[in-house]
Amino acid sequence: SQKIEQNSEALNIQEGKTATLTCNYTNYSPAYLQWYRQDPGRGPVFLLLIRENEKEKRKERLKVTFDTTLKQSLFHITASQPADSATYLCALRGATNKLIFGTGTLLAVQP
Amino acid sequence: SAVISQKPSRDICQRGTSLTIQCQVDSQVTMMFWYRQQPGQSLTLIATANQGSEATYESGFVIDKFPISRPNLTFSTLTVSNMSPEDSSIYLCSVEGGGYSYNEQFFGPGTRLTVL
Predict the structure, then answer these.
(1) Average pLDDT score, chain A
(2) Which of B42, B45, B103 sits opposite A104 (nearest CB)?
(3) Measured distance CA(B55)–CA(B48) in Å, rounded
(4) What is the pLDDT of residues B15-26, one digit of tens each?
(5) Nearest to A35 by CA among A50, A25, A20, A55
(6) Minimal CA–CA distance to B74: which of B56, B98, B101, B91?
């Protein structure tokens, strides 16, 4: 069956460090993969998109990698800040053209 | 980015009743979707709201339980019918396309539903 898995445990890091979140998928051949941020009581907010023919994408302090052989995406936040604390969701757009979300990883950046 | 509002923002309902949730977008969009997010869980797609025709439901969701309307390109409603405590969840509207990129979905703030 198709699965999208993210670190189920919360990730706690110190301010200024790089946070790395993982998204693994099985039985998908996604055209692209997206990362969203969700704060408590709010809807997800789009952050980055990376296509299947791209290895890496950057936006300010954010970096996403996409390895279609490993079926994995890594999401990095450099120089992390307490304001980066949130749940981060990866999402895939597969053959059905619908967006399917992973379980999300809660990131807590300690000052 | 699209500005999306949902009404109500939250509600507490009795078992067996129905609740209609409204989603309004500030400009015309091509696609509108309804998701459910249960406590501590990720988002599950309920259906795609089609303008002028019946919604397209995902596996496990049926029209009798979750009737959806989309009378125009900026508005949709989701009704949760004959509610039970298992329907307690956050319901989210999202949009795509129109004047916005097809590669990015915008989400409303959600409606937090509690069924007693």
Answers:
(1) 91
(2) B42
(3) 6
(4) 999 999 999 999
(5) A50
(6) B98
Of the candidates B111, B102, B109, B96, the residue with the CA atom closest to the CA atom of residue B28: B96
A20 touches chain B (CB under 8 A): no
**Two structure tokens written together for A9:** 């445990």
Q: Model confidence over B48-86: pLDDT tens digits?
A: 998 888 999 999 999 999 999 999 999 999 999 999 999
**Of A101, A103, A91, A41, nearest in space to B6 by CA:** A41
Interchain CB distance below 8 Å, A99 and B107: no
The residues near A75 (Cβ < 8 Å, ≥ 6 apart) are A20, A21, A22, A23, A35, A48, A62, A63, A64, A88, A90
Q: Does position A54 have pLDDT exceeding 80, yes or no?
A: yes
For A20-53, the pLDDT digits (tens) are 999 999 887 787 899 999 998 899 999 999 998 8
Cα A39 to the center of its chain, rounded Å: 14
